[in-house]
TrEMBL record:
Cellular component annotations (GO), alphabetically ordered: plasma membrane
Gene Ontology MF annotations: ABC-type transporter activity
Keywords recorded for this protein, A-Z: Membrane, Transmembrane, Transmembrane helix
Membrane-crossing residue ranges in chain numbering: 15-35, 84-101
Protein's recorded name: ABC transporter permease
Organism: Natranaerobius thermophilus (strain ATCC BAA-1301 / DSM 18059 / JW/NM-WN-LF)
Domain of life: Bacteria
Entry-linked PANTHER family: INTEGRAL MEMBRANE PROTEIN-RELATED, MEMBRANE PROTEIN
Pfam family, one: ABC2_membrane_2
Keyword Transmembrane among UniProt keywords: yes
């Protein structure tokens, strides 16, 4: 019975999965292609050219210059600490709100509860489906990010990207 409920939830939320995949895939491509753009900026020269810059700006530019020494570090800093957390958090909020609201708006919650399924099983299935959708929305674009980096000739440590 849990397989049927899980399939129902994934089918009902396929558009959220597609939108999540789209946002994460575009973000992955931007991260990969922005490395060459950031590298061309020559951040140390920018720091030297500024007259009496604020300390926070100098710190930020120095940290950014340190990321540019290693493509894997740059990708990790942009992908995990920025895109995955921010987009993933927004996706989780939308997914959680939509999954329960849909049952109440359509009136299908009473139908579900009339079946020999406990409330807990319904909630557990929704949580599992949400976790699976978020996992797929992050994992597939991460693989795309790695493959795209390798295709354009950038050196990347696959294990550091996936396991960190």
């Amino acid at each position: 019975m849990i397989k049927t409920l899980l399939r129902k939830e994934i089918i009902e939320n396929k558009w959220i999965l597609i939108i999540g995949l789209l946002f994460f895939t575009v973000s992955a491509a931007i991260v990969v292609f922005s490395y060459n753009l950031m590298d061309a900026l020559s951040l140390p020269e920018i720091i030297d050219a500024l007259d009496d810059p604020p300390q926070f700006l100098v710190s930020f530019l120095q940290e950014s210059a340190a990321w540019m020494q290693d493509h894997t570090l740059y990708v990790w800093s942009q992908w995990h600490s920025n895109n995955v957390l921010q987009i993933g958090f927004i996706l989780a909020i939308i997914l959680g709100a939509v999954m329960m609201a849909r049952e109440f708006n359509r009136g299908t919650i009473s139908f579900l509860l009339s079946k020999p399924i406990s409330r807990e099983m319904i909630y557990i299935t929704k949580v599992l489906a949400g976790c699976l959708i978020i996992l797929l929305s992050i994992l597939l674009p991460t693989i795309f990010l790695i493959v795209l980096s390798l295709i354009i000739g950038l050196d990347i440590n696959v294990f550091r990207i996936i396991l960190d």
